């Protein structure tokens, strides 16, 4: 994007593992990236590469594990 700003709202799941690399590259190239992640997740961690904003969810990590 030419605007230099990107909001990413990934779903919990394996596609984030691929998407994360693209988001990090965009950040390295000077884009301002904000990733909106649920408070409870498996793979989505905080990082220095981009800004992470968490949002509350009604599910606990145990409930998320049990659903799979």
Automatic annotation (TrEMBL):
This is UD19 glucuronosyltransferase. InterPro entries: UDP_glucos_trans. It comes from Sylvia borin. Keywords: Transferase. GO terms for molecular function: UDP-glycosyltransferase activity. SUPFAM superfamilies: UDP-Glycosyltransferase/glycogen phosphorylase. The keyword Transit peptide does not apply. It comes from the Eukaryota. Transmembrane segments: none annotated. It holds the Pfam family UDPGT. Signal peptide: none annotated. The gene is Ugt1a9_1.
